[in-house]
Amino acid sequence: MPIKVGASTSIATRIPIIFHIAIVIVIAMFVSTLPRAASFHLSVPVRARNIFSKSVHAVMLSSQVSSMNEGAGTGAKVGARAEDGKSGTATVNFETSDGVQLITVQKGEILRTAMLKRGLSPHNGKSRLINCRGLGTCGTCAVEITPTGSASTCTNSSNEENVVLPVDRNTRERLRLNFPPHGSPDQSPHLRLACQVQIQDTDVNVKKRCGFWGQDSSEDDLLAESYDAQLYFGELEFVLDDKSPPN
Q: Which of 7, 118, 135, 137 minimizes the number of CB atoms within 10 Å of its CB?
């Protein structure tokens, strides 16, 4: 009798991601109870950075199978389009409760990397320290991404065709953005993970909502305050980014 491995393989590839999500949430809940000074003024020693580096490499190996599960056909299509997008620059209009900040980035850059390198944080408050560093499992870099001039209430993803790649949420985004505290019925259709998308359009609007995970989307005018980037681990903050073009 032939053995069907499709379902079990699919579940197996999701276990590392779900496990990482759970770990990050537990740590985040603990850190959120700490005083502000205890989390924002930490100096990360060299030894801790070395430990983090080894952990990152282990995580990369465990998540590689999940990334390959996207499918060869889709991967080739996205890869070809990403190469086309890696020429020229784009303007990111980052909107918070403090106003709109404009940064110029390279087309093809991962949004999270582009923001951090230019002094802006896609993470709110204490999540600048407690996050997955671009693995796509913590969900704290969730932002709303729309083309300039588009209506935020529009649910047609075709309007986002030339804004970011991939056009639709990838596997990690679908898993994380449907896992609490994300996944609410009023979640914006434009919510994406900044660590998983590459800037493609020449002019992009990015909004950051309130909450540790940026999950509060019940009110259109409920925006988070602006936070400066904190590179606690230096270049290791974007070590998982293998898509952004070299600066």
A: 7
